[in-house]
Structure formats: structure tokens, C-alpha cells
Amino acid sequence: xxxxxxxxxxxxxxxxxxxxxxxxxxxxxxxxxxxxxxxxxxxxxxxxxxxxxxxxxxxxxxxxxxxxxxxxxxxxxxxxxxxxxxxxxxxxxxxxxxxx
Length: 100
What we know:
It is a single chain. This protein is an all-alpha fold. It has helices at residues 3-21, 27-31, 34-43, 61-73. The longest helix is centred in the first third of the chain and has 19 residues, at 3-21. The termini are far apart.
């Protein structure tokens, strides 16, 4: 046999071996993604919402602007840090029973 025939025989043998490794899809594989699709469907209030072209109603422009201004201003200065070592200490109203 020449080298070309040996290469073809080796390729055919490998293909047969690999075909033996292929398995049919299990029930798990067939159900893959159903939980995500079901959760998404349950959490979607209106699946046709993207087709609604009417202008939204509810909040006036001035009220919406004030709301957005307050929201943006809340990020200007971070809240003061909390000292976790003194939480609940020093209030003077403890009922530990030591003074009874």
C-alpha cells in the first residue's frame, strides 16, 4: 500500500471510532433552556409592549426633571462611612440587668 492509501485508511478508521462516541441527545439536552424561557415568559407583563407607539402618560416634564435631578444629585457626595465597631454601643439605654 502506498502512503495515500494508508492516510485514507487511517482517516476512515478515525471517523468510524469517532462516530461510535456520538450519542443521541438525552432528555436533559432536549429540555435545555426551557426553565429560562418559562421564567422569562412569566416575568413579562406585556410581550407586545415594543409595538406600542403611543406617548407615555403619567409624569409631567417638570416633575420628571426634578426627580432626575434629585437622583443625579444623590451621587455627588457619598454617604458618610459607618463605623461597624460602634454600632449599638454607647446608647446608654441598654437593659443588660447589671444595674438591678
